[in-house]
Amino acid sequence: MPKLSRKNQVTIPVEVLRKSGLEPGDELNVRAVGRGRLELERRPDLVDQFAGSLPSAYPPGYLEGLRSEWER
User: Fold this and answer.
1) What is the distance between the alpha carbons of residues 45 and 27, in angstroms, rounded to a whole number?
2) Global model pTM greater than 0.90
3) pLDDT tens for each residue of 12-69
4) Which residues pair with 28 in a beta bridge?
5) At 36, which helix (H) or strand (E)?
6) What is the DSSP string of 38-71?
7) Complete DSSP assignment for 10-37
């Protein structure tokens, strides 16, 4: 049975972590959802979430033109 340490740390059983899909290195949001209850949620990866969602800042062909200048 996990126990809260004096440093406010707790070890989560491996089986629980596997079922949750959480992995070492995941960043987590932690919320109190009631007296004696916490909720852990993996923080979304903002790069994955927003990459490519904005229109290009350059007109079509502009970057290719710059790259062709490097080859000269």
Assistant:
1) 9
2) no
3) 999 999 999 999 899 999 999 999 999 999 998 878 777 878 888 888 889 888 888 8
4) 42
5) none
6) EEEEEPP-HHHHHTT-SPPSS-TTHHHHHHHHHT
7) -PPPHHHHHHHT--TT--EEEEEEETTE
